[in-house]
Amino acid sequence: MRYFLDTEFNGFGGPLISLALVPEDGGAPFYQALRCPDPTPWVAEHVLPALDTVPIPRAEMSRAFAAYLGDDPDPVLVADWPEDIAHAATLLIATPGHRHPIDRIRFELCDPLGFDSAAASSRPHNALADAIALRNYLLAREAKEL
Length: 146
Fold this sequence. Notes:
By secondary structure, the chain is of the alpha/beta class. The chain has five helices and seven strands; from the N terminus they run βββααβαβββαα. The protein starts with a strand and ends with a helix.
């Protein structure tokens, strides 16, 4: 199944703050956040107030992320930004030299022309709301193409 992915991170190339997956079929999403002890001024103003969840330790988030995807035999994570994919892939690392046991996972990077997550999202800079906006946009576009 496809899952629409969005993340928030602490500045360009910075550490992960939050990650959301929204399944194509409308099932329960995944959304969790990590502590951000030294946010950039922009992140402090725009991202942290929009989290709407209590941050957890990275190891806990990593396990929960793998468990969320674990029952899907062929998950495809769809994102509109390369760093979203990089953060999701890195979250699959359990410990140095070991990853969480996911049989297979695919990543799809799209460039949805005309999509602006800040304009389309019900809560800009909230990874869950942004992932929902991406899913809605891409599914609507695909429906028009049929």
